Amino acid sequence: MDQKQERKDLYQVIVSNSFDSIVLTDREGRFLVVNQATLDSMDLTEEQLLGKRPQELISSKIYNYSTILEAIETQKPVTGVVNVKGVNRLSTSQPLFDENGELEFIMTNNRSDKLLNEFARQLAYEKEQHSHYREIVGYLASRKKDSIICRSEQMESIMKSCQTLGPTDSAVMVTGESGVGKELVARLLHDLSRRRDQAFIPVNCSAIPPDLFESEFFGYARGAFTGASSQGKIGLLQMANHGTLFLDELGELPLLMQSKLLRFVETGEFYPVGATRPQVVDVRIITATNRNLLQMVKEKTFREDLYYRLHVLPLHIPPLRERTEDVEAIAVFFLEKFNKKYEKALTLSDRALGLLRAYPWPGNVRELRNTIERLVLLFDGSQQSEQILRNMLGEDIGGDMEPAAGPARAGGQDFTAWHLPLKEAEARFRQAYIQAALDRCGSVQQAARELGVHRSTLYRKQQL
After folding, report:
1. pTM given for the model
2. Which residues contact 454 (CB under 8 A, 6 or more apart)?
3. Which of 9, 161, 247, 364 is in Cβ range 3.0-4.6 Å of 179 for a Cys bridge?
């Protein structure tokens, strides 16, 4: 057997055992060796392909372009996109030379763009998770905590509940609108628990692609699937061992993952993808959602058994518009933070604070934080804080907040211009009158004293 035949036989073994579509051609482009992946991609049999040249396949519209021909012409490696039977494939043709330096064979491999896109997507997600995990490590290293700023009776009651619920190991479900601070409450519960010196792992369930949920939560064994790390990967549950796993946006969890999570909650064990032995970890689970999970249970989009497993200790955080006493405290906290960050010296006038209290804050604390940051950034010393706020918040501030002028006005409202049923007009007048008192007095407690009511009564009467 000559050396050329030996090399061809060796290539035959390599090609036949490759996952990718690989072909070996001679120096004129005739197909000598092909594997099953190649035949499947072209929808041909071995007999139909062997001995053919790329020109014939192009003429038959099997594919539109050949890197083989270009590699033969240039005698250099060539990579390009080839459309094979309607599927774009990344094709690389590598010239192989004999001992005399003469072109002998061309080795070509093709990989589907769908597979490449999947790898790219997973790589991008892994990169994002790497950044996420680095933040977690930073959290563990610094143990720096964000404060929960509050003055309202509602939030003070929640803080007391956290003191009671934190030291337990039971599951807590935190509910409330987006942006109210559910993760801050979850972190507080963790910091009040016996697990405070262990990991707190926050997970946004809506940010994980559905097909990656299982490997992210449970990890995978080495070699579990094509493209998997040779070392395997630990999952979020293992990362949170002896600590707390915080599952935000719980309602976004797919049904299949709900059943797998339920099994872990009930048994404390799970199987990494591709593993044959279960892993056992000690993890406390805290969840959060802004969705009505009971309604989802009725609609069969959330498992009832999982709901009751996780809804052991419920905590509801009211929206910011229902606890206006917190608005000023939170605004001042962020003002100090961003003044320091951007080296500004902005102050909030009484009128500006009145505007902040009057605004409904549909985005809650998150929106208030962004508003204060933008306010500081826009401040150049030429405008007062309330002027900038008026431009930012627009018509949603609920009145122009000017001082009362005459019996038909309160809080800047011209009631003579209204054409409303008496009941609605009375409600609006009450709200505007209370707001005017708040602006004048500067605090809920002082306004309540001036109006002769308890501050909780004042808050209740302010609502339409």
Report:
1. 0.56
2. 448
3. 364
What DSSP string describes 264-318? HHHHSEE--BT-SS-EE---EEEEEESS-HHHHHHTTSS-HHHHHHH-SEEEEPP
| CA nearest to 339, candidates 367, 372, 376, 370 | 376
For the chain, the maximum distance between any two Cα atoms, rounded to a whole number of angstroms, is 112
Tokens, residue 447: 């306004």
235 close to 184: Cβ distance less than 8 angstroms = no
Q: Is 168 left (phi over 0), alpha (psi -120 to 50) or beta?
A: beta
Q: Which two tokens stand for residue 429?
A: 């007048």
Residue owning tokens 């003070």? 156
Residue ranges in the chain modelled with pLDDT below 50: 135, 139-144, 398-412, 414, 416-417, 464
pLDDT tens digits, 221-254: 765 655 555 567 888 998 899 999 999 999 999 9
Tell me how far apart the alpha carbons of residues 42 and 49 are, in angstroms, rounded to a whole number: 9
Question: DSSP assignment of 30-66, as one string?
Answer: -EEEE-HHHHHHHT--HHHHTT--HHHHHHTTSBS--
Write the CA distances from 233 to 97, 128, 268, 385, integer angstroms: 41, 15, 19, 51
Instruction: Give φ, ψ of 87 to 5 degrees.
Output: -115, 125
Question: What pLDDT shows up at residue 455?
Answer: 62
